[in-house]
TrEMBL record:
One of its GO terms (molecular function) is oxidoreductase activity, acting on paired donors, with incorporation or reduction of molecular oxygen. Keywords: Flavoprotein, FMN, Monooxygenase, Oxidoreductase. FMN binds at D62, T108, H158, Y162, S234. SUPFAM superfamilies: Bacterial luciferase-like (SSF51679). The keyword Lyase does not apply. Transmembrane segments: none annotated. Residues 34-388 form the Luciferase-like domain. Belongs to the NtaA/SnaA/DszA monooxygenase family. InterPro entries: Diverse_substr_monoxygenases (IPR051260), Luciferase-like_dom (IPR011251), Luciferase-like_sf (IPR036661), NTA_MOA (IPR016215). It comes from Gemmobacter aquaticus. This is N5,N10-methylene tetrahydromethanopterin reductase. It comes from the Bacteria. It holds the Pfam family Bac_luciferase.
Length: 462
């Protein structure tokens, strides 16, 4: 038996408030229930399943536009429900929180979604209602269709999007960390002081992208700032992650690529003056498990039969901003400098992917690897990814829903637990405390420290 891993693998259920997410075409599979995404009990049942499997969090992706790059339209996207229709993910959280006690939530919200001032309150509200279980996946967007839908001719340039996101975060830190001092809320009935006005401060932010003069509307919640997730590992993306991210979600095809990405992220975090161990790195992966190896491969064949490789390609076209419908199966693809997800384009370019290769690869797994086999084989593979890839855990994509999650909970989790590489019970405390074990709030080494009362940078952009 291999040497013990010596740590618990973090596992989030990767999902989206939609039918097709990563593994496209599975909605036609007879056991798939993803067409019920509109029903509240679909989500509350899922939350209960995930908590039974001691998942750390449900991680919800989101987009604000449609995938209209492939074939210059939405034909495949609509026919195969490729992240269209897509409902709002944040609205699901209260319902799922009400039927669970420990499950965390990592919800994707684009910084172009709404003003930082109103977003700050929305998140604080959820941090209160979940008692500190909310996380935010910070994305800057990559779809021209999303930009056009809100009145821009196309999206802001790649690196400028991150500059804007940096300032968005700065405003949020001021609101979450700097507006209400510790102890501002007294709740003192005898002296009729709910909150001490001397300890509540207006934020005055006058920057390049945002102007804010106002008080944070919510009193401090357990975590104040949600656990900060980030995905996107281009050069500029990494600089952004190094400043802000606590959990970085990477999309990598193999363990060597995971190791390279992980080392690059941790080096960037250290260069930004933070502790590299204050960041967790999660890779996307699909798991197909069964009691027997033959059973697992039977499921793989079934899932492949249900899949829609063309739908996978329509998704991928939008991710890298290239219309693959224009190319022959074996044509060389001019990847070039993408204004969409640069890290995704770079991987495909470095591997010399043709359309034929992409159709095969995207049929199942999407841009993520697949671990197939018995619980022992899958556990071996996951442990190898963590060890050799130098990562901390996974965002587990769904293939057939809820089968992918129930198989993981019922088959893989017990095997990992016997090896000591998965928790046997939830710890207490907020999502942040359960991930890092150092309390509910961001550590003093985090960028947000500068925006706390008494912090050296408070009011720097005034
Ligand atoms: C693994 C992964 C998952 C992502 N998930 C989302 C998502 O759910 N919604 C979204 O708008 N952008 C998503 N993105 C895009 C990035 O967050 C980012 O905004 C942008 O595309 C730039 O990425 P780059 O720095 O790699 O070029 C994702 C990117 C990666 C690599």
């Amino acid at each position: 038996m291999a040497e013990r891993l010596g740590k618990h693998i973090l596992v989030n259920a990767f999902n989206m408030n939609s039918i097709g997410h990563i593994n496209h075409g599975q909605w036609v599979h007879p056991r798939d229930t993803s067409v019920n995404y509109k029903r509240l009990d679909y989500w509350t049942d899922l939350a209960k399943t995930l908590e039974r499997g001691l998942f750390d969090a449900v991680f919800l992706a989101d987009i604000l536009g449609v995938y209209d790059v492939y074939g210059a339209g939405i034909d495949v996207t609509a026919r195969e429900a490729v992240q269209l229709p897509v409902n709002d993910p944040l609205v699901l959280v209260s319902a799922m929180a009400s039927v669970t006690r420990h499950l965390g939530f990592g919800v994707t919200v684009n910084v172009n979604n709404e003003a930082p001032y109103t977003f700050a309150r929305r998140i604080s509200t959820l941090d209160h209602l979940t008692d500190g279980r909310i996380g935010w996946n910070i994305v800057t967007g990559y779809l021209d269709s999303a930009a056009r839908a809100v009145g821009r001719s196309d999206q802001i340039r790649h690196d400028l999007r991150y500059d804007q996101a940096d300032e968005y975060l700065e405003v949020l830190y001021k609101l979450w960390e700097g507006s209400w001092e510790e102890g501002a809320v007294r709740g003192d009935r005898a002296s009729r002081v709910y909150a001490d006005p001397a300890r509540i401060h207006p934020v005055h932010h006058h920057g390049q992208f945002y102007q804010v003069d106002g008080y944070h509307l919510s009193e401090p919640s357990r975590q104040r700032t949600p656990v900060l997730f980030q995905a996107g590992t281009s050069g500029r993306g990494q600089v952004f992650a190094a400043r802000h991210a606590e959990c970085v979600f990477i999309s990598v095809p193999d363990k060597a690529a995971a190791r390279a990405a992980s080392r690059a992220v941790r080096a960037a975090v250290a260069a930004a003056g933070r502790n590299p161990s204050d960041v967790r790195i999660l890779a996307g992966i699909a798991v197909i498990a069964d009691h027997s190896e033959a059973g697992a491969h039977e499921k793989l064949a079934e899932y492949r039969a249900a899949s829609s490789p063309e739908a996978g390609l329509a998704h991928y076209s939008a991710s890298v901003g290239i219309d693959f419908a224009r190319f022959g199966l074996d044509d060389p693809i001019p990847f070039g400098q993408s204004n969409a997800i640069q890290s995704a384009a770079k991987i495909a370019e470095s591997r010399g992917y043709t359309k034929r290769a992409l159709l095969d690869q995207l049929a199942l797994g999407g841009r993520y690897p697949i671990a197939v086999g018995t619980p022992v084989q899958v556990a071996d593979e996951l442990e190898a990814w963590v060890r050799e890839g130098e990562i901390d855990g996974f965002n587990l994509t769904r293939i057939v829903t809820p089968e992918s999650y129930t198989d993981f909970a019922d088959l893989v989790v017990p095997e990992l637990q016997t090896r000591g590489s998965y928790k046997t019970a939830y710890g207490e405390g907020s999502l942040r405390h359960r991930i890092f074990g150092q309390g509910d709030r961001l550590p003093a080494t985090h960028t947000a420290q500068g925006f706390r009362i008494g912090g050296s940078l408070l009011g720097a952009a005034e």
